[in-house]
Amino acid sequence: MEIAKVDLRGLDPSSPGWRAACAAVTASMVAHGCVIVAHDAISPELRRAVFDRAMPELFAFPVETKQQNVSTDTALKGYISKVPGADFESFNVNKVDEDRSFHDFSNIFWPQGNPEFSNTVGALAKKVIELEDMVEKMTLEGLGVREENSAAHLHSLTHILRLSHYGVPEDAKMGVTLPVHTDPTLVTAIVQHEVEGLEVQTKDGSWITIPPEADTITCMAGDLLTLMTNGRVAASVHRVKTLSNRERYAILCASWVKNSVAVSVMDDFVDHENPPKYNPVKTDEYLEYRYTGEGLKSSQPLEDYCGVQK
Ligand SMILES: O=C(O)CCC(=O)C(=O)O
Ligand SMILES: [Fe+2]
């Protein structure tokens, strides 16, 4: 089985192909919790500037400097350091919709400024956010959500960027560098670069490798999209496994609703036969739950945290 690739090049809501593309995006999200989209948003030069220059420069800093990437937003962690057995580390840039965010982030590493870093990573983030929001809009439209509800939802979004590095897997045979999980987000867009790793589990339990093609990004449904759609879109179950045993970089852009707004099941998914399956949640409280004791132990954190008792 393969995950379909949907071509979004040159597409906007007035294009003749829009409705068919919405249907294809939605079908893949419903079937697999994810969709691969083809795009021309990231030029080869931008890709090289970010992955061949900015990322290696960033990860070369000493750990004491890296740890200064703390989140001003309590629930979203800053720098995630390596832990024994997993050579994975990741930075977090909050509120990437605001121009200052990259400037503030790069100041940690280059107090005298590094416009090349902020401009290139910022430019890539902007493109990824546009694609991610488009996929979110298309999914809601494909599921029949009313235009005004979808527009209000898209208006409530904020985005964070994760810049991640994976060392060569310690267990060369297994190659697993990030264990199986769902994301606590609404949607996560993943930009891979040259080295494979991202794998998605299908509903029959088998694994599909998502190739790191330069002209695609992968959008994953997170737990909060399951909540909002009353279970119509199940969150993608995925992991990172690099069997070629190479070092790997990836960039992730996650969409959230702003912290003060609770995420609820949308009206469009509720009727007499389909009562809400989830209670509303505040995103920061849900994150806290996912990344502390109770939620870490749960195999179905969304259900356990806010599922309506039957
Ligand atoms: O690196 C990737 O391709 C995906 C990483 C991931 O799933 C995560 O950080 O949640
Ligand atoms: Fe993930």
TrEMBL record:
Residues 156-259 form the Fe2OG dioxygenase domain. Transmembrane segments: none annotated. Pfam families: 2OG-FeII_Oxy, DIOX_N. Its cofactor is L-ascorbate. GO terms for molecular function: dioxygenase activity; metal ion binding. The keyword Zinc does not apply. Keywords: Dioxygenase, Iron, Metal-binding, Oxidoreductase. Belongs to the iron/ascorbate-dependent oxidoreductase family. 2-oxoglutarate-dependent dioxygenase essential for auxin catabolism and maintenance of auxin homeostasis in reproductive organs. Catalyzes the irreversible oxidation of indole-3-acetic acid (IAA) to the biologically inactive 2-oxoindole-3-acetic acid (OxIAA). This is 2-oxoglutarate-dependent dioxygenase DAO.
